[in-house]
Amino acid sequence: MIVAIDGPSGTGKSSTSKAVAAKLGLSYLDTGAQYRAITWWMISNGVDVHDADAVANAAGKPVIVSGTDPARPTITVDGVDAAGPIRTEEVTSKVSAVSAVPEVRSLITELQRSIAKGAERGIVVEGRDIGTTVLPDADLKIFLTASPEARAARRSGELKGADVHATKQALIKRDAADSSRKTSPLAKADDAVEVDTTDLTLDQVIECVVTLVEEKR
Ligand code: C5P
């Protein structure tokens, strides 16, 4: 059972995907964390993230390893725990530039496919291009959406009181960059089920996705 969950930031993708995987005994992969990890490595190693050639040349250097237990997802870069550093504002503001570079996408896509293939119990994979590009044969594809206001309110809550207006502007900017890049942009697959989470609680979204998975099993 392969479940692809895509959508823009702040729609509840991570919380939903982790909870659904835990409930159904599936593995879990956060693909955004992998793009954040490679971005963190580029920043730490002095690579100019706006120089696409430099990013492309360095893309194969870091070794990124994702742990797929939904109760304790981990990510390391060259053996170093990157879970904290990949969530900084600097990484968040630079990740779209790095993830738009085709060489980065092809390396990370291969890594994602091999993790999904190796997940014997099945897996929930969350991201932006999972249903369209990474795993087009997924058993179930979900596309989560929510109004920009709801997404900004959730994100600023997670960031412990960050300014909602500034958060909304940053989200809109990142989604625009992710949706307009040439290589595998953020997009809903034609055969994905769209779930608008604006007026739903997290528990309601989880229940809705669990039901959709069970219908496919
Ligand atoms: O999901 P998260 O906000 O952690 O993703 C960070 C960034 O990683 C996104 O804004 C996007 O640029 C990139 N990403 C991507 N493709 C994916 C997952 C994330 O390009 N499948």
From TrEMBL:
Annotated compartments: Cytoplasm
UniProt key word Transferase: yes
InterPro entries the record matches: Cytidylate_kin, Cytidylate_kinase_dom, P-loop_NTPase
Annotated ATP binding sites: G7, P8, S9, G10, T11, G12, K13, S14, S15
Keywords annotated in UniProt: ATP-binding, Cytoplasm, Kinase, Nucleotide-binding, Transferase
Enzyme class: transferase
EC number in record: 2.7.4.25
Listed CDD domains: CMPK
Catalytic activity, reaction form: dCMP + ATP = dCDP + ADP; CMP + ATP = CDP + ADP
Cytidylate kinase domain span: 3-214
An example molecular function term from Gene Ontology annotations: kinase activity
Family to which this protein belongs: Belongs to the cytidylate kinase family. Type 1 subfamily.
Protein name: Cytidylate kinase
